[in-house]
């Protein structure tokens, strides 16, 4: 707007000028109805005024040569866009009319060629040798600078293949706020036939493309659509099938008469560069002939430079790509492939068919600050992920929505490694934020200095942002479907799932007695029976025994008594848990039909064992599915965000300690641990046969083996699972 205002201010007032001035000359030409001066002559006569009115000209190289006299008009700068398609001889006329040149193009996209113009009437599709572009010539003598920021794709999966295979991962892309989003769809036309030697068309596939076009306008007419065919023949087949469809369904005609920038198109590989649409349908066209033979002929892709054409085709979409093919990736025999284009087409078809996002692929923390913030938010029950993104830029920490776990709400950026790699404050603090917000994120930044100074204040800010966006803060009720309780009837699980010995508490006294007398002996009785027990559940038990209402005064009294007696020889306070005896890393899962413990009261050692049981019996399972399965083992309660956070932390601990490992996004039992467990179990059986005595805790100390320790008569401590 500021530039437009500056230009408007410089415009001369026509009413105050003579007819002999440049303004007068232009005014006279405007008033004419015929016999206008040639533009080349007119521009020469108003050489100063033309730049006042239009300081920037947008012209093709041929138009520059035709309308601009180099002896009269000179530009300060000429900028070539899509320079990879501009021939040297066409560019010279523009270069000599300017003081400096900026040549912008992509060497990985189409070079100048007359391929389709020459061969559209031939029986086979063979192109001429590609011409040299001004980009090729200039790059050998001029300094180069790569433009790394990618703005088109609203889903990283759309550009991820090109980024990795053509640009060596140098492009900086931005993730949207959808969890594990993948915007490619592979449609296989099983009965497609390529008329090799005849029309060189695939009519069956063309009809399928028209079906998809109809479906698009039936469901998302507001989205722009384009179709790219791998050959002119297939382009023509699609257009003919589309004409037939419109003839029988004239109500759809309105969708095919839009403007050139956003309107529908059907183009081929050679003519689509520079275009973009919300949704792109790619028609491969090539396939088996009527006799079932597949010659692996992909027209221009077979030739040198075919990879450039593929790169152009697969990078035109803003939101979604549908790949329509009459062949499967495995139909392309790599041993017979004679070009890089064929090999990359095979990989792209594999990529589209797999339908797997590669946005979340980093397990390591990139900084101590990232780890600290991540673990703190998990402990509050928030569903968070780290390092979201498939390029060098990633969202440091992402918080999921409470009402829709398939979407992220908040992007938390830190001043860590990614922040330091940005070359300017504009990149760091403006462009990144604007891009993420355009993709559906809310963005919040945490400075390391502020976190070190007062981490709780920074956490409060995050909670306030989530609350204002109607997200699930830790203090709000969790979401999730009610889960059906799973009964553990498998004999392999029964050793670890035990009844929970709930305390039956008679009235011990009045609330005044609770406040006046020492009640630690009752604490000992409860902990001895229910160890390990969460401090909040222990407090609840005591309040029930004395008829005390929960409140600040009662809680202070509870902590006062416990602090005066713990740690003792029998009771150990291990953070949020109280143990009767030595704390253990894992403990058996306990349930009671009489009382279901709230999930937030479940001790973390029980959660760890539950995770192992879930993973062991699932063989492999996605990380996201583990919390709901663990919750089912404890009575099938509604899944709370805080409990999900505790489960996620426990998974990370088990991976860190070598009990579990992560393979392609799925959690499995660590093979080394599994091997040691089997060896230890075999060793114990042999020893039991020789000594005829049950294993002790020490049997598992060196191997990390899981076994149940039964309560023996006279034992004062609880039964448990020893896992060290």
In short:
The chain is α/β, with parallel strands linked by helices.
Detailed description of the structure:
The longest helix has 21 residues. The C terminus is likely disordered. Among the domains are: 172 residues, Rossmann fold (3-Layer(aba) Sandwich); 101 residues, Endonuclease, Chain A; 179 residues, Winged helix-like DNA-binding domain superfamily/Winged helix DNA-binding domain (Arc Repressor Mutant, subunit A); 52 residues, no CATH class. The protein is of the alpha/beta class. It is built from 27 helices and 21 strands. Helix 5 packs across helix 6, helix 24 crosses helix 25 and helix 24 packs across helix 26. It has a five-stranded parallel β-sheet. The chain has a four-stranded mixed β-sheet with strand order 8-9-10-11, sandwiched between helices. It has a three-stranded antiparallel β-sheet with strand order 13-15-14.
SSE topology:
Blueprint: H1 2-10, H2 22-31, H3 39-45, H4 49-53, H5 61-67, E1 75-80, H6 88-95, E2 98-103, H7 115-119, H8 134-139, H9 156-165, E3 184-188, H10 203-219, E4 225-229, H11 232-248, E5 265-268, E6 277-283, H12 306-314, E7 317-325, H13 340-354, H14 368-379, E8 384-388, E9 395-400, E10 408-414, H15 417-421, H16 425-438, E11 442-446, H17 448-453, H18 455-468, H19 491-494, E12 497-499, H20 511-516, H21 520-530, E13 533-534, H22 535-546, H23 552-565, E14 571-574, E15 577-580, E16 589-591, H24 604-618, E17 620-622, H25 626-633, H26 641-656, E18 660-663, E19 666-669, H27 671-691, E20 707-709, E21 720-722
Parallel strand pairs: 1-2, 3-7, 4-5, 4-6, 6-7, 10-11, 12-16
Antiparallel strand pairs: 8-9, 9-10, 13-15, 14-15, 17-19, 18-19, 20-21
């Amino acid at each position: 707007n500021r530039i437009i205002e500056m230009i408007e201010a410089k415009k001369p007032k026509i009413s105050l000028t003579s007819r002999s001035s440049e303004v007068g000359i232009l005014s006279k030409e405007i008033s004419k109805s015929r016999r206008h001066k040639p533009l080349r002559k007119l521009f020469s006569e108003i050489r100063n005024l033309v730049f006042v009115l239009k300081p920037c000209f947008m012209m093709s190289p041929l138009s520059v040569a035709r309308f601009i006299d180099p002896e009269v008009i000179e530009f300060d700068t000429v900028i070539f866009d899509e320079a990879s398609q501009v021939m040297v001889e066409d560019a010279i006329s523009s270069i000599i009319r300017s003081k400096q040149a900026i040549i912008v193009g992509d060497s990985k996209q189409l070079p100048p060629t007359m391929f389709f113009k020459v061969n559209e009437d031939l029986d086979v599709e063979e192109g001429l040798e590609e011409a040299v572009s001004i980009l090729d010539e200039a790059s050998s003598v001029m300094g180069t600078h790569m433009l790394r920021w990618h703005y088109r794709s609203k889903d990283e999966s759309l550009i991820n293949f090109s980024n990795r295979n053509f640009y060596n991962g140098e492009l900086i892309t931005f993730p949207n706020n959808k969890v594990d989003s993948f915007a490619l769809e592979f449609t296989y036309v099983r009965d497609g036939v390529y008329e090799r030697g005849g029309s060189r068309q695939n009519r069956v596939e063309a009809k399928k493309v028209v079906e998809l076009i109809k479906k698009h306008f039936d469901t998302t007419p507001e989205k722009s659509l384009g179709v790219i065919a791998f050959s002119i023949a297939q382009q023509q087949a699609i257009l003919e099938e589309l004409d037939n469809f419109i003839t029988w369904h004239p109500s759809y005609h309105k969708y095919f008469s839009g403007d050139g920038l956003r309107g529908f198109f059907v183009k081929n590989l050679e003519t689509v560069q520079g275009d973009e649409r919300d949704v792109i349908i790619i028609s491969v066209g090539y396939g088996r002939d009527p006799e079932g033979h597949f010659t692996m002929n992909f027209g221009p892709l077979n030739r040198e430079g075919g990879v450039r054409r593929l790169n152009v085709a697969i990078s035109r979409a803003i939101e979604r790509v549908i790949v329509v093919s009459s062949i499967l990736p495995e139909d392309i025999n790599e041993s017979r492939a004679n070009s890089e284009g064929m090999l990359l087409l095979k990989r792209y078809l594999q990529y589209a068919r797999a339908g797997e996002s590669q946005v979340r692929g980093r397990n390591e923390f990139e900084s101590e600050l990232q780890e600290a913030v991540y673990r703190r938010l998990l402990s509050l029950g928030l569903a968070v992920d780290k390092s979201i993104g498939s390029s060098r830029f990633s969202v440091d920490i992402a918080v999921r929505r409470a009402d829709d776990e398939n979407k992220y709400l908040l992007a938390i950026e830190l001043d860590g490694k990614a922040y330091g790699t940005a070359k300017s404050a504009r990149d760091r603090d403006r462009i990144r934020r604007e891009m993420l917000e355009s993709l559906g994120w809310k963005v919040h930044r945490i400075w390391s200095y502020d976190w070190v100074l007062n981490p709780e204040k920074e956490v409060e800010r995050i909670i306030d942002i989530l609350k204002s966006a109607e997200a699930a803060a830790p203090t709000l009720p969790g979401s999730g479907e009610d889960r059906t309780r799973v009964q553990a009837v498998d004999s392999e699980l029964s050793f670890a799932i035990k009844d929970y010995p709930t305390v039956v508490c008679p009235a011990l006294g009045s609330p005044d007695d609770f406040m006046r007398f020492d009640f630690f002996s009752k604490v000992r009785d409860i902990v001895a029976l229910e160890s390990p027990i969460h401090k909040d559940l222990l407090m609840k038990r005591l309040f029930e025994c004395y008829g005390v209402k929960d409140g600040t005064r009662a809680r202070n009294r509870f902590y006062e008594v416990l602090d005066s007696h713990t740690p003792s020889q029998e009771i150990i306070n291990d953070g949020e848990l109280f143990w009767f005896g030595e704390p253990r890393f894992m403990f058996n899962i306990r349930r009671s039909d009489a009382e279901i413990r709230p999930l937030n009261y479940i001790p973390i050692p029980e959660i760890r064992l539950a995770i192992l049981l879930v993973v062991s019996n699932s063989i492999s399972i996605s990380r996201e599915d583990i919390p709901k399965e663990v919750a089912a083992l404890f009575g099938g309660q509604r899944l709370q965000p805080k409990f999900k956070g505790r489960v996620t932390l426990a998974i990370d601990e088990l991976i860190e300690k070598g009990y579990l490992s992560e393979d392609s996004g799925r959690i499995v039992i660590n093979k080394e641990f599994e091997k040691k467990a089997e060896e230890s179990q075999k060793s114990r059986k042999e020893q039991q046969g020789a000594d005829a005595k049950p294993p002790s805790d020490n049997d598992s100390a060196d191997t990390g083996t899981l076994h149940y320790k039964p309560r023996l008569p006279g034992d004062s401590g609880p039964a448990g699972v020893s896992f060290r």
